[in-house]
Amino acid sequence: MPNIKFSYLYRDADNYKNFGYVVFDNPTNMELAEVVHHLKSNLIDGCWFYAKRMEIA
Q1: How many CB atoms lie within 10 A of CB 49?
Q2: CA nearest 36: which of 25, 23, 28, 47?
């Protein structure tokens, strides 16, 4: 799997919604299940994140 596409929905306090995505390189060809595990383990309650605090390891 050469690239990973992360799709998300941004919603603010006024319920303004904006869909977006980020495409990450996957030079080690990490399996999708492993990517999902790493991603979920770094999310707040398994589904939330602060966009300005995201770090790419």
Answers
A1: 13
A2: 47
Q: How many domains does the chain have?
A: 1
Phi, psi of 9, deg, nearest 5: -125, 125
Query: For position 10, what pLDDT does the model report?
Result: 87
What tens digit of pLDDT does each residue of 1-54 get? 689 998 988 888 899 999 999 898 999 999 989 988 988 888 888 888 877 665
**For residue 54, what pLDDT is reported?**
56
Structural domain boundaries, residue 21 = 3-53
Which residues lie closer than 8 Å to 7 by C-beta, 6 or more apart? 19, 20, 21
Q: Which of 5, 34, 32 is nearest to 21 (CA)?
A: 5
